[in-house]
Amino acid sequence: MAEGAAEAPAESAGGGDSGAGTLERGVAPIKSRYLTTKEQFHEFLEAKGQEKPSREIEAGDPGGHDLAGPEAKRIRLEDGRIGDGQMEKAAEPREQPQAQKRARGQNKGRPHMKPNHYDKNRLCPSVVQESAAQCFFGDRCRFLHDVGRYLETKPADLGPCCVLFKTYGRCPYGVTCRFAGAHLGPEGQNLVQEEVVQAPPVRNSLDKVLQQQLRKRKVGFERAEQALRQLGKGHLPGPTPPATVPEVTGADSAPGQDNCDAQQAPQGLSTRTTPSSPKQTCGSLTDEDIVRLRPCEKRQLDISGKLYLAPLTTCGNLPFRRICKRFGADVTCGEMAVCTNLLQGQTSEWALLKRHQCEDIFGVQLEGAFPDTMTKCAELLNRTIEVDFVDINVGCPIDLVYKKGGGCALMNRSTKFQQIVRGMNQVLDVPLTVKIRTGVQERVNLAHRLLPELRDWGAALVTLHGRSREQRYTKLADWQYIKQCVTAASPMPLFGNGDILSYEDANRAMHTGVAGVMIARGALLKPWLFTEIKEQRHWDISSSERLDILRDFTHYGLEHWGSDTQGVEKTRRFLLEWLSFLCRYVPVGLLERLPQKINERPPYYLGRDYLETLMASQKAVDWIRISEMLLGPVPPNFVFLPKHKANAYK
Q1: What's the mean pLDDT when you consider all of the chain?
Q2: Catalytic residue of the set 162, 377, 396, 485
């Protein structure tokens, strides 16, 4: 999700005496009375801030040196001029060629964001959960079992109120909770309220038995292997392949090979057997065991006219999706999950599939390059998780995915692409959708040729992002081309995606004939965009309301990731990543003209209050200050650098 030239004017437009009419292209037209210079902007924040500037420098970079990632942000203008008066110092001779590059792509050299340990002395999980049984590891356990000793070294609490204890009446993290003062007794015991509200069960979590079987490769994929054999022989799977409807001569005959799996092993697993071997079944025989679903009988996906929140890597986590659902998002989708990691039972990858109970229309997005892994993964998910659709990622532009043949590369690998779509569609009982770009190269569009084929291969819906892989975000999305593709895709519904930041943008998009719009960066900049579209208005949201949204996000994060040290720091990390996008939003009351365009970066301005000004800062140390308002002080030697170079500077 790296930004390109859309980021360029942010540093170069900072004149306090220039009105909105004289601002260059790509700069948000802010009323002249709010404009200021970079020096005055940061002097205002430092004067009003509660923390000392020296600590801010320590929080951003303990060594006092500029990190390698944001250096390219100093050169903002295309003609090579320095876009800021404070950064006129010449770079080192060896760094001169690199300084001319645009700030784009990922900060691959950023600090390690996942520490190996969060507490020097960690408490044993059996003690935290107050389990009656003894520790499984006994004397070999490497964790502490003495609560008193643990409390002596435990970091100070971050606040007086525990979200989990307040919401559900019991905090499962006990003494390890960073807000434990709210629910610890005089002897360190975990208190429980009289009326305990049962926490909603986590849907689509990874079962331990399933994980063990995946790691030992003891999971069978009969339906996937059957579909792959047909594809390998050149026999395209039809609506009801004969092999998928087994003949039944009596009540003792083997029923279909999918439902018996659900009864035979945990989480719908089957043991690895040859396709021709008889299946052991239990329970009564029903029509559902015998008759397969035909494509026309599959569960339908009718989301025309609904607002679709795009699957967003890193920022599109479950707490963020809860925020968007509250503001009116109709359809949500999990972050991109790599199929090979799912087949290996990786916990971190399966966490991307989790679904909150408020997500009534929810799908997952898979990325892969080969028919065998994608088809097997689709069969696995079809048996183990609850989703309304499965999406194939054919739009990911990053090199790590593209060079392996996945993402956008599938648009140039039509044979593999066809086998993936047909194979997954055959093993899934839910609709299959695809997300694509206009093409790989900037002036070579491929989508209009692929859409009729995708319709014939069995895709229920396609989302088209109006940019190519080569183009990335350097230009606006091509909605005229999306309009042409609507006709090519008909009668299959086509969703459009790109550059929607206001209800006017959404209205213009719908006039192209698309079935609906997918919103990605617009939701990161202002998640209340869904409310604006549904109510057809501009919302001049206050800074206190925006802070309440961030507070709700932290509450959702502590519920999802935990309220111990590890959960708090994970919540803080994702909050800071989101703040790297939120800072681009310009309040409606400050704009000279409405609406703000997604490729317009704000110049330096002073908001209507201190908090509004702080939220407009593009410095990571100021985002850390906001996180400390919600999650307490950061740990010693804390360093944060955003994932994308275009999102911040030092």
Answers
A1: 80
A2: 396
